[in-house]
Amino acid sequence: MKTALCLALCLACCLIRTESLSCVPGGQGCTPEKEDELKCRNGTVVGPCNGCECAKDRGEECGGPWGFLGQCASGLTCRRDGPHFQFRGKCY
Q1: Is residue 37 part of a domain?
Q2: Which CATH number does the domain housing residue 54 bear?
Q3: What mean pLDDT do residues 3-14 have?
Q4: CA within 13 Å, CB half, 3
Q5: Among candidate residues 73, 75, 71, the one with its CA nearest the CA of residue 85
Q6: How many other CB atoms are found less than 10 A from the CB of residue 71?
Q7: Tens of pLDDT along 29-69?
Q8: Buried-most residue among 17, 49, 67, 84 (CB within 10 A)?
Q9: In angstroms, rounded to a whole number, what is the distance separating the alpha carbons of residues 24 and 15?
Q10: pTM tops 0.90, yes or no
């Protein structure tokens, strides 16, 4: 019984670890200087780790795990390939 409980606990810890997000601490966020440096034609968005990223244009890939494939520009929607929030999609 103890062995089964220990095994279940270890398995649960492994599953939790594979679904977690780790960002590098000390990021500066999305500052006006960073926005100017990126020179994004569709504007900027704040990424999953609080960094500044260029917004995606129509037809570009978006979504994915924790949104690492990017976010769509204003007025566009990320249509995902499936119902799960971590599926990848395209901006329309």
Answers
A1: yes
A2: 4.10.40.20
A3: 62
A4: 0
A5: 71
A6: 20
A7: 888 999 999 999 999 999 988 899 999 999 999 999 999 99
A8: 67
A9: 22
A10: no
Question: 62 lies in a domain?
Answer: yes
Q: Considering the domain boundaries, does residue 11 fall inside one? A: no
Q: What is the CA radius of gyration of the chain?
A: 18
- Residue 66, amino acid: W
Taking the C-alpha atoms of residue 66 and residue 19, their distance in angstroms, rounded to an integer, is 10
Question: DSSP character for 25?
Answer: T
- The tokens for 88 are 């990848």
- Cα(10)–Cα(5) distance, integer angstroms: 9
User: How far is 2 from 65, CA to CA, in rounded Å?
Assistant: 35
**Most distant CA atoms of the chain, gap in Å:** 60
DSSP SS3 for 9: helix
